[in-house]
Specification:
Elements lengths: L1 H17 L16 H4 L3 H47 L9 E3 L5 E2 L4 E2 L6 E2 L3 E5 L2 E3 L17 E5 L2 E3 L1 H8 L21 E2 L6 E2 L25 E2 L5 E2 L1 H4 L2 E2 L2 H17 L10 E4 L1 H9 L12 E4 L4 E7 L2 E2 L3 E2 L2 E6 L8 E5 L2 E2 H19 L7 H21 L10 H7 L1 H5 L10 H16 L3 H17 L1 H11 L5
Parallel strand pairs: 14-20
Antiparallel strand pairs: 1-7, 2-5, 3-4, 5-6, 7-8, 9-10, 11-12, 13-21, 15-20, 16-19, 17-18
Helix pairs in contact: 1-3, 6-8, 6-10, 8-9, 9-12, 9-13, 13-14
GO molecular function: metal ion binding; ubiquitin binding
Pfam family, one: DA1-like
Protein name: LIM zinc-binding domain-containing protein
């Protein structure tokens, strides 16, 4: 049977060479052996043909499996090369402090050292970022210490950070909404800041109706509610703490400022009524004055005409809004050049006092026979007196250096004894800063009458003194230079 074996091996060899070109093994053509087959009988030839056919069929099936296995290996190798090339690519450029790393796991194929724990990464997932490789659990935020599992992270000082953690120490937050102030397209951070309080806030809050305190001008934070006045004004809780709400409550402060003027040798002999009023009553009284050069939203008024004014007689209850306010009419009778001084209610003591000191200077000029003055001169010297009174209150502690006897006078007055909350006493740190803010407002006022007039008047008083400046104004109707 050796010859038969040689024929089968030959058939096998021809089949392995030809199967690459064949898909199903059908319709093949074989070269027949010449002499041996001719000598066999028909029965033997039939058996031989059957053996050769079976052999060819088995070898064909084996060849198919070999092709399929080779094809699968080639696909796996191509996928592995694609993954490796994607890992070797440089990271995309970072914008807005961000870095990006692949979100899919990568399997190690060689010796790698983790930049976090310095241990070898043998098998399993690892991250390639910041020119190093890391165990996923070793790639941690330098601020909070927790692993970074986000698709983006920030890099600062060669350390990785969560984007939120990296913003915390460097990116400013809005003092109104407590959110990070938005970054513009160019990567710049634009925000607004109050020139005195340094309150930072998003520019959008200037357009979205966020209210401001009518006293200190700070914006209302989202988690803090301001007091609402009936006329639409808002008052923050710090300013509300020293706010003066009715006419009786204001009388001790009135007496203190009269003493302040007397300490400057500018005593007012006439008893001028002082009334706290709502904004509507103040505006109506302002319209009744002949010589009026006050601002549209003035907070104080020195009246010279006879008229009836609605004044606040009883301190209202305070909840979220002003409640149970008692208002009564007050008839002004002209007994001298000044019929009354009106002050807007619901303002802090230091602001109420500075307005009162300003209006009392208007009264003093009229009662002392000064001629009609231009707005910059008259408003300017009145602002100088308001500024001086604020100085005395801020730096004198619990009482004024100029009017040292006002405390005992206030405590013995009927108004003070009937209302223990006269707002007189040691200044809190906020109230001292509030007083400095009111001085800052006077000093930086851009208006020609109140702002420029104050700066010219204050310069004259510092150079020549108050008395010489007043004498010069009487004679020339102008400030000395």
């Amino acid at each position: 049977m050796d010859w038969l074996t040689n024929i089968l091996n030959g058939a096998s060899h021809e089949s392995s060479q030809g199967q690459y070109h064949s898909t199903c093994g059908e319709d093949r053509i074989w070269d027949e052996p010449s002499s041996p087959r001719d000598t066999l009988s028909d029965y033997e030839n039939e058996d031989l043909d059957l053996a050769i056919a079976k052999s060819l069929e088995e070898e064909d099936q084996k060849g198919k499996k070999v092709i399929e296995n080779i094809s699968q290996v080639e696909e796996d190798e191509q996928l592995a090369r694609a993954l490796q090339e994607s890992l070797n690519m440089q990271s995309p450029p970072r914008y807005d402090f961000g870095s990006i790393f692949p979100s899919f796991p990568v399997f190690s194929s060689g010796n790698r050292i983790c930049a976090g724990c310095n241990a070898e990464i043998v098998n399993g997932e690892f991250l390639r970022c910041m020119d190093a490789v890391w165990h996923p659990e070793c790639f941690r935020c330098h601020a909070c210490g927790l692993p970074i599992s986000d698709h983006e992270f920030s890099e600062s000082g060669n350390h990785p950070y969560h984007k939120s953690c990296d913003k915390e120490p460097y990116h400013p937050k809005c003092d109104v909404c407590s959110n990070f102030i938005p970054t513009k397209a160019a990567g710049l951070i634009e925000y607004r800041a109050h020139p005195f309080w340094s309150q930072k806030y998003c520019p959008s809050h200037e357009r979205d109706g966020t209210p401001r305190c009518c006293s200190c001008e700070r914006m209302e934070a989202r988690d803090i509610k301001f007091l609402s006045h009936d006329d639409g004004r808002k008052l923050c809780l710090e300013c509300l703490d020293s706010a003066i709400m009715d006419t009786n409550e204001c009388q001790p402060l009135y007496l203190e400022i009269r003493d302040f003027y007397e300490g400057l040798n500018m005593k007012l002999e006439q008893q001028i009524p002082l009334l706290l009023v709502e904004r509507q009553a103040l505006n109506e009284a302002m319209e009744g004055e002949k010589n009026n050069h006050h601002l549209p939203e003035t907070r104080g008024l020195c009246l010279s005409e006879e008229q009836t004014v609605s004044t606040i007689r009883r301190r209202p209850r305070i909840g979220g809004r002003i409640l149970d306010m008692i208002i009564e009419p007050y008839r002004l009778i002209r007994q001298c050049e000044v019929t009354a001084i009106l002050i807007l209610y619901g303002l802090p003591r230091l602001l109420t006092g500075s307005i009162l000191a300003h209006e009392m200077m208007h009264a003093w000029l009229r009662l002392k026979g000064y001629p009609n003055l231009s707005p910059p001169v008259e408003e300017g010297i009145c602002q100088v007196l308001a500024h001086m009174w604020l100085d005395s209150e801020i730096y004198a502690g619990s009482s004024s250096d100029v009017a040292s006897s006002s405390s005992s006078l206030s405590s013995s007055s009927p108004a003070s004894s009937s209302n223990p909350s006269s707002k007189k006493g040691a200044r809190s740190q906020f109230e001292k800063k509030l007083g400095k803010f009111f001085k800052h407002q006077i000093e930086s006022d851009p208006s020609p009458a109140y702002g420029e007039g104050f700066r010219l008047g204050n310069q004259a008083v510092l150079k020549y003194g108050l008395r010489s400046t007043l004498d010069h104004i009487r004679m020339t109707r102008n400030f000395p230079y």
